[in-house]
Design a protein that fits this description.
Elements: E1 6-11, H1 19-31, E2 36-40, H2 46-57, H3 62-86, E3 90-94, H4 97-107, H5 112-124, E4 138-143, H6 146-153, H7 167-183, E5 188-192, H8 197-210, H9 218-222
Parallel strand pairs: 1-3, 1-4, 2-3, 4-5
Helix pairs in contact: 2-3, 3-5, 4-7
Bound molecules: thymidine-5'-diphosphate.
Thymidine-5'-diphosphate (TYD) binds at residues 14, 19, 41-42, 69, 94-95, 99-100, 103-104, 162-163.
């Protein structure tokens, strides 16, 4: 039988606090004997990391932005994500296609029908076969009010092209995530990222235990992990 890889993505507006949880979750899975690939988008391959630098720094319109995001995603899927899943690994990916619908679709106002076509091309090949499309098995959505996220980011590094957007942009992005979540309830888990870090972590681990992907004892190991 094919080994069952697990493809888990992390989403949320900038400042929602997902990054520290990714490494902590990788440790828990490794502790359970899994091989874990931790990766990110935009990026994840040498080619896609070059595209990331363009996306975060160079001015461009929403169509160019969307084409670049999906070009990087195609390379990332082909070279990193799919091979790891085929070997039965756990893949933890910091952002994926839901971010494109939230940022380029809702945030920038780009046509989501076109995004769906690009999604199918990038994730199933040019056959455009929606049934064969590689979607995450689970998406952990760190949901947070934009005002709180902005306050958390205020003292962080110099903002990039996205982080420097006004609060209204992030309200739209948040709404975009909410729409994606309600259209794919089977794979989305909404985490209340406004809570203390330990409470967010417990909710996160609980959702994995509930799916049978981690043993119930993981919840104890994990309580103070991040
Ligand atoms: P992010 O995960 O926030 O990286 P970092 O925490 O290192 O800043 O991702 C970078 C930005 O890219 C983020 O502001 C969201 C944006 N983005 C899109 O606009 N579309 C996408 O499809 C993806 C994956 C990210």
């Amino acid at each position: 039988m094919e080994p069952a890889g697990r493809f888990i993505t992390f989403e949320g507006i900038d400042g929602a606090g997902k990054s520290s949880h990714i490494e902590a979750l990788a440790s828990v899975f490794r502790h359970q004997g899994h091989t874990v690939t931790v990766t990110r988008e935009p990026g994840g391959t040498p080619l896609a990391e070059k595209i990331r630098a363009l996306l975060l720094n160079d001015a461009m319109d929403a169509l160019t932005e969307s084409l670049l995001v999906f070009a990087g995603r195609r390379d990332h899927l082909r070279c990193v994500i799919e091979p790891a899943l085929a070997k039965g690994e756990v893949v933890l990916c910091d952002r994926f296609t839901d971010a494109t619908f939230a940022y380029q679709g809702s945030g920038r106002g780009f046509d989501t029908k076109l995004l769906s076509i690009l999604e199918q091309m990038a994730q199933s090949g040019i056959a455009l076969d929606a049934k064969k499309m590689r979607d995450p098995d689970l998406t952990l959505w760190f949901d947070l009010a934009p005002g709180v996220a902005a306050a958390r980011l205020a003292d962080a590094r110099a903002p990039d092209r996205f982080e420097s957007q006004p609060a209204e942009f992030f309200s739209r992005v948040r709404q975009g995530y909410a729409e994606r979540a309600s259209a794919a309830t089977h794979r989305f888990v909404r985490l209340d990222a406004g809570k203390a870090r330990g409470a967010v972590w417990s909710q996160l681990i609980g959702s994995l235990v509930q799916r049978g992907w981690l043993p119930a004892t993981a919840a104890d190991i994990a309580a103070d992990a991040p």
